Amino acid sequence: MLPRRTFLGGAAGLLAGAAVPATAFAQARGDRPFRIYRVTYRGRTEVEDGFDDYLASNGVAVEFIERDAERSTARLPEFVEEIRALAPDLVYTWGTSVTLGVAGRYDAADRSGYITDTPVVFALVASPLAAGLVADLADPGRNLTGAVHVVPPETQLRAMHSYRPITRLGVLYTSTEQNSLSIVEDLRRLRQTMGFSLIERQFRLDGDGRPSPDGIEELIAEIGAEGANWLYLLPDTFLGTQYDRVVPAALANRLPTFGAAELAIRQGGALVGLISRYYSVGQLAASKAVRILRDGASPAELPIETLKRFSLIINLPVAKQLDLYPPIEMLNYAEVLTG
Amino acid sequence: MNSLRIHLSAALLGVLVVALLLFSFRTVDRAEAVLQPEIERKAAAVAESSAALVGKALALGIPLDRLQGLGEHLQRIVADNPDIAFITLRNSAGASLYGSPAPQAGADDAATVEAPVAGAPGGLSVVVWLDPDFAAEVVSTLWIDLVIVMFVTAMVALELVYVGFGAGLYAAIEGVENRLRSMRRGDLRLHLPIDAGGEFGRLARSLDGRLDRLHAAYASLRQRVVERGDKAAQQALEMLHARFGLGERVIEAPGRVIAVRAPLFVFMLAEELTRPFLPGYIKALAQPVPGLSPEFVASLPMVTFLVVVAASQPLLGGTTERLGRRRALVLGALLGVAGYVASAFAGGLLGLSLARAVSGLGFAMVFVAAQGFVIDSTNQRQRSSGMAMFISAILVAGLCGPPIGGILADRIGVPGAFVVAGGFAAVSLVLACLCMPAAEPQRPRGPAIRWSDFGRIVASPSMAALLFLCAMPAKIILVAFCFFLVPLEMQALGASQSTTGRMLMIYPIAMVLLVPTFAALADRWDMRASFVAGGGVLAGSSAFVLATASTDIPVIGVMLLGLGLGQAISIAALSGLVGDLGRQLPAGVSETSVYGIFRLVERTGNALGPLIAGGLLGVYGFSTTVMLIGGATALCALTFALTTILARPANLELPSAGS
Amino acid sequence: MIRLAIRTLPVFAVIIGFAMILAAFLNFSGVRTAYLDLIRSRMAMTAGAIATDIAKASSLGIRLPEQTTLPDLLARQSSAEPLLLSIDVEGSEGDILFSSDPARTGTLDDIAGDTGAFRHRQDVANDFGAPVGAVVVRLDRAAIDATIDKLRVDILTAAVPAGLGAVVAGCLIALLLLTRLHRIARRASDGRAGAEPLGSAEAEMARLQTSEAA
């Protein structure tokens, strides 16, 4: 635990402009720490804590160059330029949009605006395949690898079911996201075995075919009116940006929400979530970084791994609002948020 | 029957039962004082654990009327714990908020345990009502235990009477009694002399002295009268002869046989101790052998033992005769000591199998030597009462050994129990030296088993049917069930070794209590073949109680009772029928050969039992294996019944009618 | 007669004494088993409840090392058990992941060296039957042994008077029976039993001899 503050101190120093001369080769240099250029999407999260702790506990000394996209993709080209100038040993990216903005699609026609040689390790990308980051998870084949956090839909539903039996399950997703479509396909399959019916709604698309937040409240109201007793917040990238509208709308309709991502419950206000801990995702990503930095492994050969460690989290203030409390035995194995 | 032995045994039994009853009441009293708080403590643990959960929920801010699933949680606790009758969350007003409603009036006297919900307002508490039936059941189970203890203790004490008095004193006392009894009846025949010292020996000799003088006077007078041809005097003497049996000798009950009872009983007890824990012990030691199921592997050391017993018994008859019965028994007991102690320290299956083979050789040696001793010490007419004594010693050991062995294994572990078994074998060795006469009476031997007879015996269809459809399956099912499958299954059901040991008493109890009755009935009604077939069908069908209910301990008990009942019906009739059929065989086949081959077939069945059971168990599991073996046994018995009907009346029922 | 008494009465005393010792041992075993069964059932209940929660959480994909709510659950369950040393939750390698006794967390469970504890172990399997870990409830063996020792003393003390009484009564009855038989036999051998068949046969024989001699 001790060294982390030192790293942060080092990172702060870098941010102040005391840049270290660039070195082209990512190799162990004994006395000098590795340099990692880190791009986050909405400031520091527990993912970074897990990442830093993992490096520290493995005795890998690093200096960070910290940059934050501030929930927008606008500054990403600027960061790409800076990465080229500073030539760090490794680039770390948080989330699908940042990773896409820094590393680009694997099949992009013009890759000049992206980092194509420095190794990039991502965390918290729900589906690298659907995002077009790589063609094959087991064999990325480019300067990119990282950690995926997906809880299988069936397990999600089982957790939902043990909180409150599912009779009609509502879902709201983006019709253009491949990942979401395949999850919804799974849900349709599970209707039979688990005995519920499905109410599907898609986000509206704007003129360019991109999902739009317009009419979210109406869509939720429709789901509620059709008698849904759960709203499932599946790991949809666009949905992930709209929790602050989706969840209050669901609450207004007295519709309990079940989140698949930690953000959904910690900040979005979902009732329950079966989630991968951000901290663990960070650790898994860091394990990739260690392989690249210390062992000199090529990211192209490091498979993208899925985290299989989940936590069940109950949002008790939301339970109070909905007057829908968990079964008492669930308190024995669920984490309860009270604040 | 008013012999001193019976009086003494009855007195001993009476005194022991009174003492044990008093003692057992005191034990139960003490036990209740220890057990009742434990029952309450468990209820308290239940109450506190539930109260803590409720407390946590309330502390998190979940309202009291929104404790989802608490009712189900409490109901599950009641369902899972037989000692708990009701459990409820109660407020200070005594109203039940969750869980089963408070029991109605009349159950107020039941003990309750209450745990307050910490940090909750309004005096909330979780209340548990103990089920009074459970405490009663704990005590009644304990009483059943204690009654079994009384029974076993009394049986052991009675056996010890034989040990304690020794053969000499016993023979003297019995001799005196026999003389007095026959004299009182006016039977003044001469008795075999008693060579024991001591007061009763002297008394017997002095009684014999009077009788001898009388007989001598009678003989000389008779001679003179006959020489003189005095008809009147001759008639008077004839009347004396008819009235008092003067000039004749009594056929004695076999008093000398008693000498072998104690060492035999103690040695058999050693082997019987191992019954409840041996299969589980083997299984624990067994290393997986590729291609063989663990159950089959587990049967191998048992098979080794029984094969050694079966194969060596026919050969040991001559050996024990040459060595002398006492020396042979001592040697057998020594092998037993070595075998049991080695079993305790066997590191693996091979070592254990070797140890068991040594034990098996010792067992066979003791068995054959004791049997030989009985045969040596009895004449033809005393033989059956001598053999009855021999068999009763083995049966009583079979009855007392398993429960004691089970308790021993529970207390000191299986290796310790094996060492105790070795100790018993050593005691048997000492007893053999103390009790059995060193000098052997030399008797003319009957012809030994002739192997050439085997073909002639088996060539008789009715005999072959009897041997292979009844005698062999009876032993297979007995060994498979009692000595192999049931101990393993009991272990799998989580029963203690003590429980297994008590379970294994069911069969010998049925035998001890019922065999004499059924033997008499089979003879009186002249229905030996029917008894053999009927008993076989019943014993085999007992397995099918497993098909009607789930496999649990009481069901296994019922199955063993059915097996015991079936075999109690058939066992004596079977032995008698072998003799009946043997006399139908062509001349030249001796009865010894017939019985020798009968026993060999039985012992082969013994050895096949665990082999078959182990093989099937690995493939089909317990219930199916039991039903397969039981079904096959019943089917064999039915087939035998059919052949009997077809062969009637020429072969089967007639001879016994004439005998 | 004294020699007979010396020869037989100790035998009787030994037999009855042995029987009483055997009975005391077996009685004590029975009560001890009943007592330990009750304690085990209590341990099994505690371990079973925790194992159920672990299995439930595992079925939701929450791995045992990640079940961070366990310390709280163990603390609650352990407060209900007065004899408790610890409740441990072990991983599949025997490493203690959580324990109500903080000092044990992170150590390896030393089963052979844990002689001070009376243990109950409940294995936990996931939905597919694969082992996940185990719950081990450890009670204070010394406290349990103390109760058992007291039980042993109580039962053995109760056995002593009953046994002594039985020995005395048994010896008296045996002596009575032997004396009676002895008396009858001596009378018979002395020829004092004149009215009995032997006497009358001797008398008859004497008469015949006399008449023959005459």
From TrEMBL, chain A:
Keyword Protease: no
Keyword Glycosyltransferase: no
InterPro entries: ABC_transpt-TYRBP-like (IPR007487), TAT_signal (IPR006311)
Transmembrane segments: none
Keywords annotated in UniProt: Signal
PROSITE patterns named among the record's database cross-references: TAT
Stretch forming the signal peptide: 1-26
PANTHER family per the UniProt record, alphabetical: ABC TRANSPORTER, SUBSTRATE-BINDING LIPOPROTEIN, ABC TRANSPORTER, SUBSTRATE-BINDING LIPOPROTEIN-RELATED
Protein name: ABC transporter substrate-binding protein
From TrEMBL, chain B:
Keyword entries, A-Z: Membrane, Transmembrane, Transmembrane helix, Transport
Main localization category: membrane
InterPro entries documented for this protein: HAMP_dom, MFS, MFS_dom, MFS_trans_sf, MFS_Vesicular_Transporter
Membrane-spanning segments: 142-173, 296-316, 328-351, 357-375, 387-408, 414-436, 457-486, 506-522, 529-549, 555-579, 600-620
Compartments, record wording: Membrane
Keyword Nuclease annotated: no
Membrane topology summary: Multi-pass membrane protein
Location of the HAMP domain: 171-219
Keyword Membrane tagged: yes
SUPFAM superfamilies found in the cross-reference section: MFS general substrate transporter (SSF103473)
Listed CDD domains: HAMP, MFS_MdtG_SLC18_like
Descriptive protein name: MFS transporter
From TrEMBL, chain C:
Protein name: HAMP domain-containing protein
Keywords of the record: Membrane, Transmembrane, Transmembrane helix
Positions of region (Disordered): 193-214
Organism: Jiella pelagia
Residues that span the membrane, as ranges: 12-35, 155-178
Domain of life, per lineage: Bacteria
